[in-house]
Each structure stands twice: as C-alpha cells, then as structure tokens.
Write a sequence for this structure.
C-alpha cells in the first residue's frame, strides 16, 4: 500500500487520502485508502496536516486517531 | 500480597532464554520469508492479509513458546510450577485493571511530554497498530486479529518474557534486574522505535504483576486487555 504524496516535489510515503465535492464545498481527509483512485489524492502526513481549503469550504478531517495513541504488544 | 515460593531446583536459565529468543527471531524471519515467497516477492509484509501474518507469527512463537516449555519439562518441573502458569482468585481482575490503566492512563502520561517536545502526535504512536487493524476486514479478519493479537501473543510472550526470561534474570541478578531486563528486551524485540518507551513501561507493569503474584495469570490478563483495548478502539472506529 506504499504510495507517494501527490504534492509536487514531495517523495514521502502517503499517509492520508483526500476527496472533495464542489457542490457541497467540502473536502474530506481520510486515512490512506487501500487503493489509489483517480478522484482521490494521497498526501504524506506533513501535507495532510497542513491541508487547507478555500474560503467558504469545509474541511472534515476523518482520520480520527484515538485521543491517547493506542499501542499493541504482539 | 504474599509472594509464593519459587522453584530454585531447576536447571533452565539464561542460556535457554537466549536460545528461545534467537530461535524466535530466526523462526519469525524464515516464516516471513516463506510467506512472502508464497504470495509474491514484490508485495510488502505490511500488505499481507492477517491470515498470512498469523502464519508468519507462528515462526516467531516456535522459539518463544517451544523453548520455555521444553526447558521446563527437561530441566525443571514443567511450566505450571516453574513459571507460575496458573491462576488464583484476583489474578484476572488485577490484570484487567493493570492493562486498562496502562493503555489509557500511563502511556498517555508518558507520551505527553514527547508529543509536546516533538512534532509527533498520537496518530504516529498508533500507526503500527492501525496498520495491522486496518487489515482486519470482515468477521474472519477480526476473529483472526483477536486470535493472534488478543489471545495468542499475550500467552506466548508472557510465558517467555515473564516466565522463562524474568525468572532466569531474577535468579541470577535479583528481582529488579529481572523485571527491568525482561521489560527492556520485551520492548526492543518489537522493533518499533516510537513505541519503545510504551512497551518497556508496559513490560515493567507486567513484570511487577508476575513478580508480586508469583503467577503468570495476571500479566497474561493485563496483556490481553491491553491489546484488546486497542483492537476494539481501532476496529470500532
């Protein structure tokens, strides 16, 4: 599932995927999708965290990490 | 809480722990290589299905479980007596509480300053866990996740780290070197740098449970609850 960030000049591994809807004026930022899609864009963590939307648009960050940072010991 | 007597007339020790750890690493690497070869050499291990992850995990468990069981049979009195592989009264509730408190309170307290001083956040900490739980698609995937991460790993790792390793270190160097040494190797063996402080801290909690009760039931319960808390949060979200 290793894909590169879509930002020009950034070669980091993608960590999130964003999609948007012009009519709803909404951008959704989700955890990295399992597969690439022509209507969605992958971003590395730095660029995903810095993602901003035009005035009048809404950004919904749906990556929702647990508030405490869940760990596994296996 | 009274500390039960330990078997001292056993011949297993640090050599067996070292053998178990090395065999586990070799077994894990060989199993992972076989699994990758069967699938497709170009695929990343992170992209394998949970069923294949479970198969690769069996290679790791071969040494981690096999050596303690064989050593305690051949050089001691078996895992029940030698490692305290049994349960009494409050072991399970005590372990349950310790697992939840460590996951939801102690680790966030430990990482608060780390997140504050760096540009890391909780999503970075949970990346490896999320990478695994994201592969649990469908009821079979979730069942596999629970079987491997929620049940199998806690039992196998506690028998090795708190059973064989910690008791070997305690016999040779004393109680605290035993607890800290096994916790350190437990953390390092997961090969995740950012998670290292959390895993060492959790290893100390598990070591204290094993040492104070003289049995493995409490640390096994704590380990199960610790992992299952994460599984429930991440699969649920």
């Amino acid at each position: 599932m290793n894909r590169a960030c879509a930002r020009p000049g950034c070669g980091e591994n993608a960590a999130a995927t964003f999609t948007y809807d012009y009519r709803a004026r909404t951008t959704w930022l989700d955890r990295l999708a399992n597969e690439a899609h022509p209507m969605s864009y992958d971003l590395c963590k730095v660029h995903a965290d810095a993602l901003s939307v035009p005035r009048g648009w809404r950004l919904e960050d749906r990556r929702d990490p647990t508030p405490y940072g869940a760990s596994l010991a296996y | 809480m009274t500390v039960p007597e330990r078997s001292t007339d056993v011949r297993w020790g640090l050599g067996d722990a070292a053998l178990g750890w090395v065999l586990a690493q070799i077994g894990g690497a060989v199993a992972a290589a076989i699994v990758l070869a069967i699938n497709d050499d170009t695929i990343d291990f992170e992209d394998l299905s949970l069923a294949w992850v479970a198969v690769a995990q069996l290679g790791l468990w071969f040494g981690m479980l096999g050596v303690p069981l064989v050593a305690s049979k051949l050089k001691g009195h078996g895992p029940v007596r030698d490692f305290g592989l049994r349960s009494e009264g409050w072991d399970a509730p005590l372990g349950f509480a310790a697992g939840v408190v460590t996951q939801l309170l102690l680790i966030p307290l430990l990482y608060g300053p780390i997140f504050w001083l760096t540009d890391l956040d909780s999503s970075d900490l949970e990346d490896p866990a999320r990478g695994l739980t994201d592969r649990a698609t469908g009821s079979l995937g979730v069942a596999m996740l629970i079987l491997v991460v929620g049940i199998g790993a806690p039992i196998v790792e506690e028998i090795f780290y708190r059973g064989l390793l910690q008791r070997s270190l305690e016999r040779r160097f004393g109680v605290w070197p035993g607890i800290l040494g096994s916790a350190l190797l437990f953390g390092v063996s997961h090969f995740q740098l950012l998670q290292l402080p959390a895993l060492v801290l959790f290893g100390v909690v598990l070591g204290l449970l094993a040492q104070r009760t003289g049995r493995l039931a409490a640390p096994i319960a704590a380990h199960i609850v610790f992992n299952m808390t994460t599984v429930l949060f991440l699969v649920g979200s």
